[in-house]
Specification:
By secondary structure, this protein is α+β, with helices and mostly antiparallel strands. The protein has two domains: 4-160, D-amino Acid Aminotransferase, Chain A, domain 1; 162-195. It is built from seven helices and six strands. The longest helix is centred in the middle third of the chain and has 17 residues, at 113-129.
Length: 195
């Protein structure tokens, strides 16, 4: 698990806003964090949950859904293979009940959906750049008209697996044309590349 300071550094590197809603366990860290991180109060903000989960076959997946204490009670989370672009991020959001709420909410205090899209795109990039990250959960992620803000996060790391090779193997087994192209690149005859 990464410490709050390490999570803060990771998020800062990807332009994600993180203000932990808790104080560190170490009293010295707690005083420093309390002095540098303001208390966040955003009336009308919607609580979301976003992150990365690891599938044993497909590797890392970007997850999105309702946040706060209801995340465990509801089955409103959707998953998408990274990397994401704006269209894929919008589709990921739209597949959830909370996504429908975000899109329906309009007017002066409408939630900033573009900020959520960018956060999901950046989570996909984190998955691509850091295969050692096995799980990343931002909960709650609050969103309102001013943007998206992570209030709490948990990151689990482990030795990197060869996810890219696994995805390539899946693609090659599904496509004879890709098998022949890979065989030519490797100097094999196309017939020796058959399964």
């Amino acid at each position: 698990m990464l410490s709050p300071k390490e999570i803060d550094a990771l998020f800062a590197a990807y332009g994600l806003r993180f203000v932990p809603s808790y104080l560190a366990e170490d009293p010295a860290d707690a005083a420093a964090m309390a002095a540098t991180k303001p208390m966040v109060l955003r009336p009308g903000a919607i609580e979301l949950c976003a992150g990365l989960v690891e599938d044993p076959v497909f590797g890392p997946l970007v997850a999105f859904g309702q946040g706060g204490i209801t995340v465990e009670a509801t089955n409103g989370t959707s998953l998408e293979l990274p990397p994401l672009n704006s269209l894929l991020a919008r589709r990921l959001i739209a597949r959830t009940p909370v996504g429908k709420l975000l899109q329906r909410d309009s007017g002066k205090h409408a939630a900033n959906i573009e900020a959520v899209e960018q956060l999901l795109i950046r989570l996909g990039q984190i998955a691509a750049d850091h295969p050692e990250i096995r799980e990343l959960e931002i909960n709650p992620l609050i969103v309102d008209a001013t943007g998206a803000l992570a209030l709490d996060a948990r990151v689990r790391i482990a030795a990197a697996r060869s996810i890219g090779a696994m995805r390539l193997a899946i693609a090659l087994s599904a496509s004879p044309r890709l098998r022949r192209a890979a065989a030519r690149r490797n100097g094999d005859s196309p017939t020796s590349a058959a399964p």
